[in-house]
Write a structure and sequence with these properties.
Belongs to the ATP-dependent AMP-binding enzyme family. With 630 residues, the protein is an alpha/beta fold. Helices cover 32% and strands 24% of the residues. Among the domains are: 140 residues, Rossmann fold, CATH 3.40.50; 125 residues, ANL, C-terminal domain (GMP Synthetase, Chain A, domain 3), CATH 3.30.300. α3 crosses α5. The protein binds coenzyme A (COA) and adenosine monophosphate.
Length: 630
């Protein structure tokens, strides 16, 4: 029997023009689109191609004009500094307009890129919206990345301006952003002419005359800039994400499709609207932060909550419950790893009893598969629907979810429920043929992708086609493998490439291998993700040393750990590495990473028929047992 949800889903596939045309009426356009879906350049599709709008206007000004200027747009809560602030729609609009004026004064115009390197402070939201206001393209870089990664992004995006903060605050230390930025500016080929700096109380950064400008001086005195109308297909932002190599992919988001899809998602997926408090406990450096800390809640006229802190240790595992109670949060969105961290500290959920969390109506989880233990714990402790939903930086919003605003479907353990409207999800075999229900294959989405999904990669239209569209003509290859069961429920089981998810952060093992291979004593190496009870996965490296190297192995391992931290960043959490005599390979010389991973995870391993020398597996097992303390 077809459900309400199934009917909505089917309509989205049968009549995408009608479906998304109607959704587009939720957005204020300076020029209403007459073309809903432009397929003239297929397989590259564009949504609302003759429409014009301004995303910042839709996120801020229009709510003020509708008489909701006093409603709270942004709540900022820092568990690190104790700062708790509220910004009404009117206040956030004025601040953003002044920031937009300030960056115009610093030479930024429509189409220019602005790189934002900031921790979880309200100014990061203001900076992003200010770029959108004047049609500049922001590129936010997560603070946990090292200078080298920042430099790669500077060279790819070639920004006119960097907006940064002096420092970020982690529980164990102050992270000095400015020296990392300075190092990145030295490493990059592209010359960044100007830097706008937020000086935080915890550490004041030195300023370079003629290049660096102080936010607290420039923004208040700047004139308020008006919203600039842009084409629906103009880029709103570039967000770099890990690919299979060390060169990150610049995922491009357009203005029109993004605004329509995110606005639609707030009501239909999250069931949150005007005046309700939505909290995405993520970071503005990730796609979750872009979509659900900044844009979607504001497009919907809701209140968004920005939290600087951790789920545990700031000060304890009751931190999330405190925030929910204090601000009457309706929906919380975070990664399963945050709940595993809370569960580990407070297994019985005793701290929950100290807070009234009855405002909460649902918990959404993403970034990695929600394991059944975490799902059950959260369901039982919170007593609200817990929704595992699956998405990617590329897609910008959920491919699969239990759409609470349409119909609360029964959930199945380990499944992010069903494909969301607009996503024609299929399971394909290696030749690209659709597989029957229950069979494992590549998860691919039949084109066109719905609005809000990326139309291309920055500076790399060919890589966009090669990486995502070439494997299965007519489909977007998600890079995830899984099944869809008889009832249409999807199960996301693994990546088909060498991307891993560490505490919900997406990282490339290929990128880490590039760093290890650069060590002068390393002849070859393999990095793979192994299971971790808290972070889901953590990277582990095995290296073979060059002939004649007699140095102490522990010393080399320390250098390798440090170089991944220095070149990729602490967020990679690369702490496990060992020296081996040889790596297991096929006769054609391919390293058997999947076999090593299974052995590390303690799974049973059938010796691959193609292995060059099965005896190596015994040596590898011994090394793994020592490394993993078994
Ligand atoms: N700037 C600088 N450094 C950062 C950083 C930032 N914005 N964010 C993290 N780091 C550093 C941390 O300090 C840590 O460094 P360390 O090795 O010196 O301890 C390292 O990067 C790893 O950080 P993290 O992944 O946060 O792990 P953790 O062990 O500090 O905390 C959790 C574990 C589960 C509490 C944490 O990962 C968490 O809160 N996750 C929530 C989920 C989430 O944000 N997901 C994002 C996608 S939804
Ligand atoms: P990111 O681009 O950082 O959002 O990472 C996207 C990848 O994270 C996906 O391709 C999946 O491998 C994984 N992922 C995200 N959400 C889920 C989920 N709910 N279930 C399973 N895997 C997920």
């Amino acid at each position: 029997m077809s459900s309400i949800f199934d009917a909505v889903y089917q309509k989205s596939l049968d009549d995408p023009h009608g479906f998304w045309g109607e959704a587009a009426t939720g957005i204020s356009w300076s020029r209403k689109p007459t073309t809903i879906l432009d397929d003239s350049q297929a397989p590259v599709y564009r949504w609302f191609s003759d429409g014009e709008l301004n995303t910042c206007f839709n996120a801020l000004d229009r709510h003020v004009r509708a008489g909701r200027g006093d409603a709270t747009a942004l709540i900022y809560d820092s568990a690190m500094t104790g700062n708790q602030s509220r910004y009404s729609y009117a206040e956030l609009t004025e601040l953003t307009a002044r920031c937009a004026g300030a960056i115009q004064n610093l030479g930024v115009t429509k189409g220019d890129r602005v790189l934002i390197y900031m921790p979880m402070i309200a100014e990061a939201v203001v900076a992003m919206l200010a770029c959108a206001r004047i049609g500049a393209v922001h590129s936010v870089v997560f603070g946990g990345f090292a200078a080298n990664e920042l430099a790669k992004r500077i060279d790819d995006a070639t920004p006119t301006l960097v907006i940064a903060a002096s420092c970020g605050l982690e529980p164990s230390r102050v992270v000095h952003y400015q020296p990392l930025l300075e190092e990145a500016l030295g490493l990059s080929v592209h010359e960044v002419p100007k830097v706008l700096m937020v000086q935080r109380d915890a550490w004041q950064a030195p300023m370079r005359e003629g290049r660096d400008y102080d936010w607290s001086v420039e923004v208040p005195k700047a004139p308020m800039a008006d919203c600039v109308s842009v084409a629906a297909t103009d880029p709103l932002y570039i967000l770099y994400t890990s690919g299979t190599t060390g060169q990150p992919k610049g995922v491009v988001r357009d203005n029109g499709g993004h605004a329509v899809a995110l606005h639609w998602s707030m009501q239909h997926i999250y069931d949150v609207g005007e005046g309700e408090v939505f909290w995405a406990a993520s970071d503005v450096g990730w796609v979750v932060g872009h979509s659900y800390i900044v844009y979607a809640p504001l497009l919907a006229g809701a209140t968004t909550l920005m939290y600087e802190g951790k789920p545990v240790g700031t000060p304890d595992a009751g931190a999330f419950w405190r925030v929910i109670e204090q601000y009457h949060v309706k929906v919380l969105f975070t990664a399963p790893t945050a709940f595993r961290a809370i569960k580990k500290e407070d297994p019985k959920g005793e701290l929950l009893l100290n807070y009234a969390t009855d405002s909460l109506s649902a918990l959404f989880l993403a970034g990695e598969r929600t394991d059944p233990d975490t799902l059950h714990w959260a369901q039982q402790k919170l007593g609200v629907p817990v929704v595992d939903h699956w998405w990617q930086t590329e897609t910008g919003w959920a491919i699969c979810a239990n759409c609470l605003g349409i119909q609360d479907l029964p959930v199945k353990d380990g499944s992010p429920t069903k494909p969301t409207p607009g996503w024609n999800l299929c399971v394909l075999d290696e030749a690209g043929n659709p597989l029957p229900p229950g069979e494992l294959g590549s998860l691919a989405v039949k084109l066109p992708l719905p609005p809000g999904a990326f139309p291309t990669l920055w500076n790399a239209p060919d890589r966009f086609i090669e990486s995502y569209l070439a494997a299965f003509p007519g489909y977007y290859n998600t890079g995830d493998a899984g099944i869809i069961d008889e009832e249409g429920y999807a199960f996301i089981l693994s990546r088909t490439d060498d991307i891993i998810n560490v505490a919900g952060h997406r990282l490339s093992t290929g990128g880490m291998e590039e760093v290890l291979a650069d060590h002068p004593d390393v002849a070859e190496c393999a990095v793979l993700g192994i299971a971790d009870a808290m972070k889901g996965e953590v990277p582990m490296g095995l290296v073979v040393l060059s002939a004649g190297v007699t140095r102490d192995h522990a010393e080399i391992v320390n250098e390798l750990v440090q170089s991944v931290r220095d070149r990729i960043g602490p967020v990679a959490a690369f702490k496990l590495a060992a020296v081996v005599e040889r790596l297991p390979k096929t006769r054609s010389g391919k390293i058997l990473r999947a076999t090593i991973r299974k052995m590390a995870n303690g799974e049973s391993v059938t010796v691959p028929a193609t292995i060059d020398d099965p005896a190596i597996l015994i040596e590898i097992r011994q090394v793994l047992d020592t490394l993993l303390g078994r």
